[in-house]
Amino acid sequence: KKIGVVIVAAGSGNRFGDPIPKQYHTLGGKTLLGHCIECFARHTSPELVQVVYNPAHQNWYDGAIAALGADITTLPAPIGGGVTRQQSVLNGLRALSARKPDIVLIHDAARPGISDDVITRVIKALETHAGAIPTLPVADTIKQTSRDGVITKTIPRDTLQRAQTPQGFVFETILAAHEQFEGQEFTDDAALLEELGLDVMCVEGTSANDKITKRDDFDRAHDWIDSTNK
Ligand code: CTP
Ligand code: MG
């Protein structure tokens, strides 16, 4: 099967709060985006890895690519993203469609701790499902509250999972879903298939693959890179 990859890196990292967007910060000499590109390129060929970026970040993007391994020579030109993550994903899927992948893995550049094992589990689950995503069980007790902060309900924790990426799909199915729901608000790609009543399978994620959202998350990832390089 031909595996396409969309890496979305067009965000501005407002919550991270640095002039340089988080995807262009470096861990162990490579940017967050660079770590993602290298990991996915190992599971398919680089020409099937489509990066979505903000053209205003061109210099940072070029710097990220310059630090990649010498084997990543045939990466396609990045495509411009949109105002929302969802629009950025759709732009990436449209760009990829000319290369006719059978399945596609959609990944956040803000998850540099992605591993071969997680990618393999997602691909495997796609043999029997239209969609598959890595998740982790929720460790804390979750409270539903009213707007003023008073608890209205405790949600049974064993029914909850935290969604990660890469989220994998049959290519034509997720492209059609994104076209259909263009402009509507969804926080991840699996939600579009759920809306269509299609089964999305959860496979085991890892804590290293948690998203870098704030500065603290980045500092923790630094410790993790340091410990794996020892
Ligand atoms: N993303 C994107 N296009 C957007 C918004 C987000 O490609 N219009 C990407 C980000 O670059 C990131 C991933 O989607 O890799 C997850 O988004 P998030 O963690 O929210 O990143 P940002 O939107 O950049 O951060 P913030 O929400 O704090 O501004
Ligand atoms: Mg965002």
TrEMBL record:
Bifunctional enzyme that catalyzes the formation of 4-diphosphocytidyl-2-C-methyl-D-erythritol from CTP and 2-C-methyl-D-erythritol 4-phosphate (MEP) (IspD), and catalyzes the conversion of 4-diphosphocytidyl-2-C-methyl-D-erythritol 2-phosphate (CDP-ME2P) to 2-C-methyl-D-erythritol 2,4-cyclodiphosphate (ME-CPP) with a corresponding release of cytidine 5-monophosphate (CMP) (IspF). Keywords: Isoprene biosynthesis, Lyase, Metal-binding, Multifunctional enzyme, Nucleotidyltransferase, Transferase. It catalyses: 2-C-methyl-D-erythritol 4-phosphate + CTP + H(+) = 4-CDP-2-C-methyl-D-erythritol + diphosphate; 4-CDP-2-C-methyl-D-erythritol 2-phosphate = 2-C-methyl-D-erythritol 2,4-cyclic diphosphate + CMP. The chain holds residues 3 to 232 of 400 of the full protein. GO terms for molecular function: 2-C-methyl-D-erythritol 2,4-cyclodiphosphate synthase activity; 2-C-methyl-D-erythritol 4-phosphate cytidylyltransferase activity. It comes from the Bacteria. Its EC number is 2.7.7.60, 4.6.1.12. The record marks R157, K211 as: Positions MEP for the nucleophilic attack. Pathway: Isoprenoid biosynthesis; isopentenyl diphosphate biosynthesis via DXP pathway; isopentenyl diphosphate from 1-deoxy-D-xylulose 5-phosphate: step 2/6; Isoprenoid biosynthesis; isopentenyl diphosphate biosynthesis via DXP pathway; isopentenyl diphosphate from 1-deoxy-D-xylulose 5-phosphate: step 4/6. Residues 1-230 are annotated as: 2-C-methyl-D-erythritol 4-phosphate cytidylyltransferase. The gene is ispDF. The record marks R15, K22 as: Transition state stabilizer. Its cofactor is a divalent metal cation. Belongs to the IspF family. This is Bifunctional enzyme IspD/IspF.
